[in-house]
Amino acid sequence: MNKADYKGIMVFAEQRDGVVQNVAFELISKARELADSINEQVTAVLLGEGIKGLANDLIAYGADKVLVADCPELKDYITEPYAQAIYHLITERKPEIVLVGATTIGRDLGPRLSARLVCGLTADCTSLEIGEDRNLQMTRPAFGGNLMATIVSKEHRPQMSTVRPGVMRMAAKDTNRKGEVEEVTIPFDKSKFAVKLVKKEIEAKNKVDITEANVLISGGRGVGSKDGFEKLEALALCMDAEVSSSRAMVDAGLIGHERQVGQTGKTVRPDIYMACGISGAIQHLAGMEDSDYIIAINKDKYAPIFQVADLGLVGDLHKILPLLTAKIQKA
Ligand code: FAD
Q: So where does this one cross the membrane (predicted)?
């Protein structure tokens, strides 16, 4: 492997059922920023069937080129065809950096690709920067989130990383941006296709995506019980907000994991994040500290959550929340 042969940044633009996932736009936005700092190009890889029309959106967020493989083999995500397609494009185009969303698909695809490419993978990154030596500095939580580790791949190419949805900021969409769309053909080895998709069951979409809420009222162990959560829900209702939580509440079975914020939950960045009875453990902060305005309610004035809060209320949430709800309802 000659390092000098590897140039530019490649982003796997994940789409599901013809909808490009936000994480793809986030990664393209970040890739654009990184590529500009080293004077390189951003190439997005779009795989699927009937998806050519999505390419222009990827350009609008910062891609210079979109490689489109539009064929029946890639209609639905199945590991082997997708891995073969991206492996082929990486070995052919030789990007210096490859970025993949740390979604269920990306978490399946990333390790398989890195094993085939023998290049290593830094999973679940929260920050990506180009170092002075031009290597990518990939930062991720380590040791249960107690420290942040910056990993650099000095010898191997490409430098590969998965990044959690919601971590990188999406750039403003610029529909006037110009870029190139190139249709590509993948030389599949179908003898390796061991899995066939027999049936697809789509989960009813009654679950909210807390990453899209503008206001989150989040509850922790201090909320205590189902009754406590009802106070949170009442406030959320009158503020047009969604309810989220710390892991303590999920572990206690009071709320579903899809509403958990933090290192092993979701990364959120709402306009207002109200942390009620949440201490502010590092693993929780990892998922919400970039919120625009943080309000914390905690009876312990030394709770670490106050260190990241813009507004802190020291007191019993069971008294404060109903007062707040009544006040807002009257307003
Ligand atoms: P606690 O830490 O117990 O805090 C409860 C707070 O409520 C206290 O500060 C207390 O003063 C306050 N309080 C109590 N009663 C009241 C009241 N009546 N009024 C006002 N305040 C009150 N955690 C996450 O949240 N998300 C994650 O994704 C996550 N991932 C993890 C991954 C790993 C590998 C590990 C090891 C841990 C992870 N955790 C995660 C757990 C994390 O370390 C903490 O244990 C958890 O965040 C604590 O939740 P909490 O703040 O609700 O509870």
A: none
